[in-house]
Specification:
By secondary structure, the chain is α/β, with parallel strands linked by helices. Helix 5 links the parallel strand 7 and strand 8. Helix 3 crosses helix 4. The radius of gyration is 19 Å and the shape is globular.
C-alpha cells in the first residue's frame, strides 16, 4: 500500500465486496457488466440466471469488463450490445463523440463509504493522506471527488493512488491488519447520482428499438425479482462472487434492495450534479444538458403501458 510519510493510509471502496465481438446486426450479443461488486452487478446476474433475459427473447451472454469507462468504450466500438455504466463514464463517452444514451437505471444514488484507518478521527483529517482510488471516470472516482467536495476538500488535497476496483482498493490496506472505520457515509447523504444504468448506442436505438425495449423490460423485471426473491438472489451472488460468507451477501442484498429503482427511470438531477463537477474538468460539460445523455422513450413506455404497476400488483 502506498502511504504518506506518517504511515496512515485511507481507502475508498464500495458498500459491497470489495468469443468474438458481437455487432448490432448479429442475433447473438453481449451485455457487459462493469463491476464485480454484487451490489451493483447482481441485477444483471439475476436477469441472466433467473431466465429473464431469455424470457424476453434476448439471446445475449453476460461479459465482465472492469470499469465503466472500458465498458462504454466497448459499447461504442460495437463489441457489446449493451453495457452497464455510471453517469460520469456516459458523460465522458458522449462528450468525446460517442453516440450513446442511458436507456434505464437501477441505482440513482451513491451507496459509497469513505473508509479510513483509526487514526483518522474526522473527514477533515483526510487532508494530506493517501487514498486508494479506481480509474478516472468510474463511479468510485467521481464519488470520492463528491465526498471531498462535501467537506471542503478536493483531489488536490490528498494523494490519490489508482489501484483498481473495490477488491483491489480493500486489499491495498488489508495487509496492515488494522480495522477500518467509516469516515464518510455517502448513502446517508442521499445525493442524486446516476449510478448503475444500462447504456445503448443511438444507432441501436434507431435500428432495433424493439430489442432495446425488451432489454429495458427485462431489467425492470429483474429488479422486481431481486426485491422479492432474497434466497435465490443471495445464491446467485454467491455463484458469481466466490469467497465471502452468506451473511455478507445477505447484508449486501438488504442494502441494495432498498436502493434499486422500481420504475428504472434515470435521474436527470443526478446527471446535472455530475455535469456540474465535470464542467471544472471539461469545458464541453458546461454546455451540455443532462437530457442529452438519456433516451427515456423506453421507460416511458413501461409507465404508459402499466408494466411496472402490474409487476408490483398496484393495479
Amino acid at each position: 500500500m502506498i502511504r504518506n510519510r506518517s504511515g496512515v493510509a485511507i481507502v475508498f471502496c464500495y458498500l459491497a465486496f470489495a468469443g468474438g465481438p458481437a455487432r448490432i446486426a448479429e442475433a447473438k450479443g453481449y451485455v457487459a457488466y462493469i463491476s464485480d461488486s454484487p451490489a451493483s452487478a447482481s441485477p444483471y446476474w439475476v436477469a441472466q440466471d433467473a431466465g429473464i433475459l431469455k424470457k424476453y427473447g434476448l439471446d445475449v451472454d453476460l461479459i465482465f469488463i472492469n470499469g465503466s469507462t472500458r465498458g462504454i468504450q466497448s459499447l461504442i466500438a460495437g463489441d457489446v450490445t449493451f453495457s452497464s455504466g455510471v453517469g460520469p463514464a456516459v458523460i465522458n463517452g458522449k462528450l468525446a463523440g460517442g453516440d450513446i444514451a442511458i436507456i434505464n437505471s437501477l441505482f440513482n444514488t451513491l451507496s459509497y463509504y469513505v473508509f479510513g484507518k483509526p487514526e483518522i478521527k474526522s473527514p477533515e483529517d483526510l487532508k494530506g493522506r493517501s487514498a486508494a482510488m479506481h480509474i478516472p471516470g468510474t463511479a468510485a472516482d467521481f464519488a470520492l471527488r463528491l465526498a471531498l467536495k462535501g467537506i471542503g476538500l478536493s483531489l488536490k488535497d490528498i494523494k490519490g493512488v489508482t489501484v483498481g476496483g473495490a477488491p483491489a482498493r480493500v486489499a491495498a490496506v488489508r495487509g496492515d491488519k488494522l480495522g477500518l472505520k467509516v469516515v464518510i457515509d455517502m448513502a446517508k447523504l442521499n445525493i442524486p447520482f446516476q449510478f448503475t444504468c444500462t447504456v445503448a448506442t443511438r444507432r441501436m436505438i434507431r435500428e432495433n428499438p424493439d430489442l432495446v425495449q425488451r432489454m429495458v423490460r427485462a431489467m425492470a423485471e429483474a429488479v422486481h425479482y431481486y426485491k422479492n426473491h432474497k434466497d435465490s438472489v443471495v445464491k446467485i451472488m454467491q455463484k458469481y462472487s466466490r469467497g465471502p460468507s452468506r451473511t455478507f451477501f445477505e447484508e449486501v442484498y438488504d442494502s441494495s434492495r432498498e436502493l434499486l429503482v422500481e420504475d428504472t427511470y434515470p435521474t436527470i438531477e443526478g446527471l446535472k450534479n455530475t455535469l456540474e463537477i465535470q464542467a471544472s474538468l471539461d469545458p464541453k460539460a458546461a454546455k451540455a444538458k443532462a437530457e442529452d445523455f438519456v433516451d427515456l422513450r423506453f421507460v416511458d413506455e413501461l409507465k404508459k403501458s402499466g408494466f411496472i404497476e402490474k409487476l408490483y400488483g398496484k393495479r
